[in-house]
């Protein structure tokens, strides 16, 4: 089977690499010629563990290629995925569907101009409910209805674990409106069903909404435990024990109950806001999700105040070492990272910032001002009045604590990811502030 993937971003590249690894012939299309040139030269534009190796293997086997020629790629493909970005529209927070619709128009023209044969157009981008209907309308301007089907197939992979998530997902969700499209999708996902992954078929609108509902639910779970963490701090309880205690109930489950500085990234912040907009438009506001989004925003700023408190209430002319900047480990992604609000909050209070991140420095430079970057955690801590762990990178999980303490001007460590144990830190002579736990 020949597959074309329009959009060589995160989802497009990972899906393309994995489909090629399953033996399909994949063409990845992107409008950005620089990105295509880089991919052809073997350079992967994003940091994702294992992706470069996987792409390299498929390139050598001749199963994946990269091009800016959408028409050419689509002409030969039986299944065409739309995996372009759906960023938040500036000003109003709706998902911006410009790229999805212009991809659909180009695909329609390309199929119209090519030889006969049925095509399945699959929307993999995260899109508001009803977008598949609009894609179908766009395609039917240039194509007769018998020539194509439109499926919704949202992606649930996490950055940093994307390949594993793609190949061994908890589930695949496929939304279709006709039997032929459904059967084509069953062939696409046959390799995954051999991995015992449940492929769940539903109608298109339900599939579209499932994606937003899943992300909103996970964002809610995180925000819930973050509020419990605040309550734990106020009452002397331990949020990690509370999380374990509730997570052992299989109806709740143990995952996504790690308290932290608030969720960030390219998905939860924009998808919760887009869902809120859709729900308001339909006269059925999602008040829980509205609260989650605003509590999370406030939390990021509150984390700067927590650091100020840990430093004795005054940070003017003091230096704070920020350890970890990306919204989570194993990515270079800085989109909506809590570190941005934390750094800004500390700077507003008069602090100087020095920061270290293993992969995120280049992207961080684009979104942060007046920050000095260090090459490693110890250089970062040198002479600083406090260190703050914002992202739980592996290199920050096993720090040489004596070396860190010796580097710091004052042994103050704020651990926004609960990487360390309060008793151990106290013994080591740190003034240690974790999340949701008190000494
Ligand atoms: C998220 C979802 O987990 C994926 O299933 C989904 O496919 C993806 O969005 C998407 O819509 O594309 P991702 O944004 O890569 O994936 O990252 P997560 O691992 O979900 O983490 C999101 C944020 O929540 C991070 O800032 C992380 O630090 C935070 N988080 C996560 C917590 O604070 N506590 C937790 O227990 C878990």
Automatic annotation (TrEMBL):
Substrate binds at residues 156-159, 211, 256-260, 264, 328. Pfam families: UDPG_MGDP_dh (PF00984), UDPG_MGDP_dh_C (PF03720), UDPG_MGDP_dh_N (PF03721). The active site is at residue 267. The keyword Oxidoreductase applies. Its EC number is 1.1.1.22. It catalyses: UDP-alpha-D-glucose + 2 NAD(+) + H2O = UDP-alpha-D-glucuronate + 2 NADH + 3 H(+). Pathway: Nucleotide-sugar biosynthesis; UDP-alpha-D-glucuronate biosynthesis; UDP-alpha-D-glucuronate from UDP-alpha-D-glucose: step 1/1. The keyword Protein biosynthesis does not apply. NAD(+) binds at residues 30, 35, 86, 126, 159, 270, 335. Residues 321-422 form the UDP-glucose/GDP-mannose dehydrogenase C-terminal domain. Keywords: NAD, Oxidoreductase. Belongs to the UDP-glucose/GDP-mannose dehydrogenase family. Catalyzes the conversion of UDP-glucose into UDP-glucuronate, one of the precursors of teichuronic acid. This is UDP-glucose 6-dehydrogenase. It comes from Fulvimarina endophytica.
């Amino acid at each position: 089977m020949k597959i074309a993937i329009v959009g060589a971003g995160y989802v497009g590249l990972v899906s393309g690499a994995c489909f090629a690894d399953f033996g399909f012939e994949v063409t990845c299309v992107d409008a950005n010629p620089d990105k295509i040139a880089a991919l052809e030269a073997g350079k992967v534009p994003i940091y994702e563990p294992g992706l470069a190796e996987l792409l390299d293997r498929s390139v050598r086997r001749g199963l994946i290629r990269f091009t800016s020629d959408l028409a050419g790629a689509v002409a030969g493909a039986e299944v065409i995925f739309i995996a372009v970005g759906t960023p938040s529209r500036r000003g109003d927070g709706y998902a911006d569907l410009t790229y999805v619709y212009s991809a659909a128009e180009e695909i329609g023209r390309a199929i119209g101009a090519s030889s006969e044969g049925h095509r399945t157009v699959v929307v993999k981008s995260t899109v508001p409910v009803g977008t598949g209907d609009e894609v179908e309308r766009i395609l039917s301007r240039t194509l007769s209805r018998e020539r194509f089907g439109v499926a919704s197939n949202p992606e649930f992979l996490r950055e940093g674990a994307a390949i594993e998530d793609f190949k061994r997902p908890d589930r695949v969700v496929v939304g279709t409106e006709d039997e032929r499209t459904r059967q084509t999708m069953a062939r696409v996902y046959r390799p995954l069903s051999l991995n015992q992954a449940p492929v769940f078929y539903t109608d298109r609108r339900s599939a579209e909404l499932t994606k937003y509902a899943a992300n909103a639910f996970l964002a809610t779970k995180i925000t819930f435990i973050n509020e419990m963490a605040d309550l734990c701090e106020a009452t002397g309880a331990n949020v990690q024990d509370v999380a374990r205690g509730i997570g052992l109930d299989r109806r709740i489950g143990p995952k996504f109950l790690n308290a932290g500085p608030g969720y960030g990234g390219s998905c939860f912040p924009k998808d919760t806001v887009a869902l809120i907009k859709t729900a308001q438009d339909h006269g059925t506001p999602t008040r829980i999700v509205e609260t989650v989004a605003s509590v999370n925003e406030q939390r990021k700023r509150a984390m700067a105040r927590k650091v100020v408190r840990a430093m004795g209430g005054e940070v003017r002319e003091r230096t704070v070492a920020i350890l970890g900047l990306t919204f989570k480990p194993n990515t270079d992604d800085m989109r909506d990272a809590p570190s941005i609000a934390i750094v800004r909050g500390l700077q507003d209070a008069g602090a100087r910032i020095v920061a270290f991140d293993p992969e995120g420095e280049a992207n961080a430079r684009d979104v942060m001002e007046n920050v000095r970057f260090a090459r490693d955690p110890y250089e970062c801590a040198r002479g600083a009045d406090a260190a703050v762990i914002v992202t739980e990178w592996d290199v920050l999980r096993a720090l040489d604590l004596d070396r860190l303490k010796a580097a710091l001007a004052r042994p103050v460590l704020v651990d926004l990811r609960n990487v360390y144990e309060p008793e151990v830190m106290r013994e080591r002579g740190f003034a240690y502030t974790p999340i949701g736990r008190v000494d």
